[in-house]
Design brief:
The chain is built from ten helices and four strands; from the N terminus they run αβαβαββααααααα. Helix 2 packs parallel to helix 4.
Amino acid sequence: MASNSEEQAAAVLVIGGWACPYAIRVFAALRLKGVEYEFLQEPAGRKSELLLKSNPVYKKIPVLLHHGKPICESMIIIQYIDELWASNGPAILPAEPYVRAIERFWAQYVDDKIAPAFLVLRGLTDGDKDEAAGQVSTALEHLEEAFVKCSRGKHYFGGDNISFLDLVFGSHLGWFKAVEKIAGIKVLDETKYPEITAWADRFCAHHAVKDVMPETDRLVEFSVSSSLKSKLSN
C-alpha cells in the first residue's frame, strides 16, 4: 500500500521548464507548503501533447496537474496551492484584503515590466537595450520603495515569511545575474537598491527556493542557445 507522501507525489505534477521563472515560482510555492510533486520538463523548442491538452488556450508553461485536472497561469496556480493546502505551513497570500491587493498589484507590475525587458536584454525580442535597461532600473526603484512599505522592517515582502509577491518577484532573480553577464551591465546594484539586494540574497537562500533557483552560468548558456535557435528560425 502506498504511503500518503507517495500518493501525494503521484497526484501533483508540474509541466514546466527548469529555467522558466513562472515555473520556478510554482516549484517554490509547493515546497513552501511541503507538497511533494513530480516535475515534467517540457521539451525544448516544441510543445508536448500533454501541454497542448492541458493548456489548449495559451499553450504555455507552467501547468499544475492535480489528480489529472489542469490549472494554468503561474499566479493562479500559486493561489490554488495556497487555498488548497491552507493548513500546510504559512499562508502565501496575505489575510488582510488591502495587503493582498497591494501584493497582487506589485506582482503584476513585476511581470509586466521586468520580464519583457529581460527578453530584450537577452536578445530574444526586438527592442532598444538601453531603454529596456532603463525600464528595469525604474521598476527596481519602485520595488525598493514597495519593499520598505510591505516588509515593515522584516525579511520579506510578506514580513516574517515568504509571500505571494516574494515568489513572483523572486522567481526572476536567477535571470538578473544571467542578464548582467549577457548584456554586460549591472542590473541589481546594491548601492542603488540596498533593500532589494539584501532581500534577494535571503530569498535565494531559503530552503524552498535554493534547490530550484538555476545557476547563473547554466542560464547564460541556455539563453545563448535559445537566442541562436530564434535567429536560425527567422
